[in-house]
Amino acid sequence: MKKVGLISDTHGTFSKDLKDFLGDVDVVLHCGDWGSVHTLDEVKDFKPVIGVYGNCDDQDIRMEVPLYQSFRLEDLNCLMIHIGGYPGRYDYKAFSLIDHIKPDIFFCGHSHILKVMNDPHHFCVSEPERMMMTMNPGACGIMGFHNVRTALRFKVEGRDISDLELWEMPR
Length: 171
Prior knowledge:
- The chain is globular, with a radius of gyration of 15 Å.
- The protein is α/β, with parallel strands linked by helices.
- The chain has 4 helices and 12 strands.
């Protein structure tokens, strides 16, 4: 079993209350827009990290993390990119990657809007009756138009996702 923290759009803020929420996770997934190399290093020093760069990240961050990541969480194939969209409205790069990689879970950020939903048009290769899940944790930083900072944590055991929890904090 793996405990997972999912964040995006820190924009330079990795606060104590967010660290408290992520304290018992095994890995942090960061969907881009770190804000600074200092923030990237701070998250890396806190927990193991799988991350991508966002549209606001500079060249120093882009040298440290890729545009997209394809990886496994337990027995689930995962795909992460910053600008992704959501079912029926994927960004063209995200759509192409989803079509090629065929993930069980698709992680993205950018919108600053929390969304967790199944995609009725994309199904898991190993379980054809199971829809691909799309997860966007919203924004956990203080920069942007959002009023509430958000993050997610959950457990993955084999192919099962459980105990999805939401962190909310006023901006």
